[in-house]
Automatic annotation (TrEMBL):
Cofactor: pyridoxal 5'-phosphate
Lineage: Bacteria, Pseudomonadati, Pseudomonadota, Alphaproteobacteria, Rhodospirillales
A single BP term in Gene Ontology: cobalamin biosynthetic process
Record field: catalytic activity: O-phospho-L-threonine + H(+) = (R)-1-aminopropan-2-yl phosphate + CO2
Organism: Aestuariispira insulae
Recorded metabolic or biological pathway in which this protein acts: Cofactor biosynthesis; adenosylcobalamin biosynthesis
Protein keywords: Cobalamin biosynthesis, Lyase, Pyridoxal phosphate
Name of the protein this chain belongs to: threonine-phosphate decarboxylase
Amino acid sequence: MPAKKLHHGGNRDWAKAQFSFTGEQWLDLSTGINAAPYPVPPLSDDGFNRLPDPSDSVRLKKAASAYYQAPSPAHLAIAPGSQALIQWLPRLRQKSKVAVIAPTYQEHHHAWSLAGHEVREFESLATARESSPDVIVIVHPNNPTGTLTERKLLLEIAGELAGRGGWLVLDEAFGDVTPDDCLDDAVDHPGLVILRSFGKFFGLAGVRLGICITNTTLASMLETAMGPWIVPGPTLEIATAAYGDTAWIEATRRQIAKDAIRLDNLLTKASCKIVGGTDLFRLAETDDASKLLRHLGDDGIMIRPFEYRLDWLRFGIPSNESDWLRLQKSLLRFYK
């Protein structure tokens, strides 16, 4: 039997089938991807015409290692998106007991289950620890709640799991907006495996780049398993430039922090309660969630619903004044 496909944000085909909007200009606020992306620099012909050289990957790893404050480039494994890493990691272990802290990004449970592991979800990290798993998966900050866990506790848990040959997998896909809460500098600590997404903060999800930051042995195993030339040349060029652009990075962090506050104010005025999120997305709670989802969708505005919490909606951050105004007007029409 084919595996069930999970629902994700960013699916315009799904939106076109669900809503009455017939225009071309969808406003996609259904993901946590930065809607004001990094400006792609001029690219070389070699990036398209030739297979990447090992030195191209080395340059990327050096830039990424500095950006994430990892111990060294050798602690990094690169892949065509963090989703690829989510699916590869379970295949590098024998059958294990896996605890996923939920609610969260559902692909983690899905990938570990497909690889034959015994997977359980826990709302409480303390309860998960008591179950004596081999692997604990935490999205940090969590998607969609934005929950963060104390660094000292995470390192303690990683060591505990390493003592029985296990891993603490931290998915830091949205960690760029809270760098002080990330543990990339600590991956020499036993048992710690961190996943990073280039596309979220830099707003270039289509270039497909994910990075695993972990001990050098596991990083090497991952890259060997995935094979050569796993990341395309143009992606390597773009990401190497982006990771080194400190001015853009700092300015973007400041701007999206302001925008998150602006979105909170807008949603609160529309009778939504802000219950979580990060600077890249906000999680709203409302008894009118299904009606609001329909109203915005019919206006060509995509947001993210959740099957497991029908009163939750996730909103991404608009990228320009025109999009802000479009969202504001639609919300006003709904709650007038």
